[in-house]
Design a protein that fits this description.
This protein is of the alpha+beta class and 305 residues long. Helix content is 47%, strand content 17%. It is rod-shaped and about 130 Å long.
Length: 305
């Protein structure tokens, strides 16, 4: 990839003016910084290229000098290196240089949320794949929101769940309150109010994300799914990602069953009306025959007597 291509890709990220700690040209291991992308609570993210191959990367550098931030940064690096789903950023390298720890990962693109039933379903199921892997490791993401979803665009656009720095063990007490984890409007009430982050807290965030894809006006096939996922009562939500994903895959089944039941009921009503019509005509015919029979008997009786 030529330098112009790398600069063009980095330009799509560099939407925040900054007084970045490191300048273009500084090297972290095999990666040379080319542009600033953004800043988080304890780190700065740069666009970089491999010094020999020219391969692009995103390099996250720890800029806070305290043990808790460093431990969390090392934990994020270990987690990114461990994860296998392609719904996460690909791990390239971890190390220390220029007096700071750094993590080199796949360079991804920002993008808009999808719209439309099928596109949203594909999007949500891919994120479910990522969240399910985290949950299988006993972890929760804690900050699922549009800003933490990036896109891999080499072949076709694929969503990638990024920013794993706040991932923590599920059910750990007070983790949200102590670390400021979560985003109002996306994080579950129990996470924002009491610092309780569990698997169903992530499911709440996924439900809100799906709702945002539809601009807060989901179609009927999605409405019940989203309402359950975002219930204010944790026990009323889907209790695992597999159940949430299954509901998305079968979102039209309930509607199809309802339409089938309506059609069957309509046919039953038509059949009942037709049967009653036939029965009415038959009753009328029997009444007529009965009257004719009575008239004949009466005539015969008059002739005899």
């Amino acid at each position: 990839m030529c330098e112009d291509d790398i600069e063009a890709r980095c330009a799509s990220h560099a939407h925040v003016a900054s007084d970045a700690r490191f300048a273009s040209g500084e090297v972290f291991g095999d990666w040379r910084i080319t542009a600033f992308i953004g800043r988080g609570g304890s780190g700065e993210v740069y666009c970089a290229e491999h010094v020999t191959l020219g391969t692009p990367a995103a390099v996250k550098v720890l800029v806070r000098d305290d043990e808790r931030a460093k431990a969390r940064f090392v934990g994020e690096a270990r987690l990114v290196a461990k994860l296998r789903s392609d719904a996460f950023p690909r791990f390239f390298a971890y190390g220390e240089a220029n007096g700071a720890a750094y993590l080199a990962m796949e360079l991804l693109e920002p993008g808009d949320l999808p719209t439309g039933d099928r596109a949203v379903a594909r999007f949500m199921l891919k994120l479910c794949e990522a969240v399910a892997e985290l949950h299988a490791l006993g972890l929760v993401h804690r900050d699922i929101k549009p800003g933490n979803v990036l896109w891999r665009t080499q072949n076709k656009a694929e969503p990638v769940l990024a920013d794993l720095g706040l991932a923590a063990e599920a059910n750990a007490s007070d983790i949200g309150r102590r670390t400021g984890a979560g985003t109002p409007g996306y994080s579950a009430p129990e996470q924002m109010e009491r610092g309780e982050a569990t698997e169903v807290s992530d499911i709440h965030s996924l439900g809100v994300l799906a709702d945002r894809c539809f601009g807060g006006r989901p179609p009927r096939a999605w409405k019940r799914i989203i309402e359950r996922a975002t219930s204010s009562i944790p026990a009323h939500r889907y209790q695992d990602v597999a159940s949430f994903a299954r509901a998305i895959r079968t979102r039209h089944r309930l509607m199809r069953m309802l339409l089938i039941l309506i059609a069957a009921a309509s046919l039953a009503v038509v059949a009942l009306v037709a049967w009653r019509s036939v029965e009415s005509r038959r009753a009328q015919q029997e009444d007529r025959l009965q009257k004719e029979h009575e008239e004949i008997l009466e005539m015969l009786q008059r002739d005899v007597y």
